[in-house]
Specification:
With about 325 residues, this protein is of the alpha/beta class. The protein has 12 helices and 14 strands. About 30% of the residues lie in helices and about 30% in strands. This is NADPH:quinone oxidoreductase family protein.
Amino acid sequence: MRAWRVAELGEPRDVLRLVDVTDPQPGPGQLVVKVLACPANFPDVLMCRGEYQVKPELPFTPGVELCGRVVALGAGVDGFAVGDRVLGGAVLPFGGFGQLALMDAATTFPAPAALDDAEAASLYIGYQTGWFGLHRRAGLRAGETLLVHAAAGGVGSAAVQLGKAAGARVIGVVGGPEKAAVARALGADVVVDRRQEDFVEVVKAETGGRGADVVYDAVGGETYQRSTKCVAFEGRILVVGFAGGRIQSAALNHALVKNYSIVGLHWGLYHRHDPAAVAECHRALTALAAQGAVRPLVSQRLALGEVADGVQELADGVTVGRVVYVS
């Protein structure tokens, strides 16, 4: 099969090579799927650079989530059949940026009929992260104010839709007028272009000085530090990631005197600690998709030969929504 391979570490455009590789074979509890769609995710960028917490042995094919059609089953696999359309995580080194990929049955789920291949592939990591973050970790309630950073990106766009579905008032922060238009289309009640406005002042003005009840922060660094200035009494700051490139330090005395919580979220740990909750989350997301309450924003659909450039655009921070390889 043809697949993109990383044999040395560096920027995605420099190290991804489209080559012929041996077809994957399923081990016990595994599936081989024909890849129908695979979105670019920031972990793909970090793995190309060797900066992710998971460091696959070289060479490997990135593409950490996908939608595929089952073509082979390993021993002990129940609940799936050849021909099923599924979504979930890839088992590296056979990630989703190729014609075939390897998946664990335990982290594979039926693809929602309401979504096309590119949308279904994008429902897994970003939307599961948003669902666990907003509902299980932050306890978002209807009527609360949710502040979402990078609201036009893959992770942020999911949080905007999930926040609206939960009945929250959503303030989205973006960089530039194009991304502002995307955030409005996603349903954000208030959109802040951080290049033109100070989101701290906007949040205070929009909440009568109270601040945001929940802050969804996948950016980190200065964005986190400034968010502490506009979080509400008994508010919750969700630390989801550090796409801005700098891991911040938390001033715990500030959290004490303002009475807010700093809540970490590593969604991948739920596969080990509470796999039933992951399945429950997928059922909830499937229902929301069927209702039209959530639909992943796919801004670019790439042919196989365009994958390296698409992943690099994500790395450069110039994308909106999801950039997805579609076979």
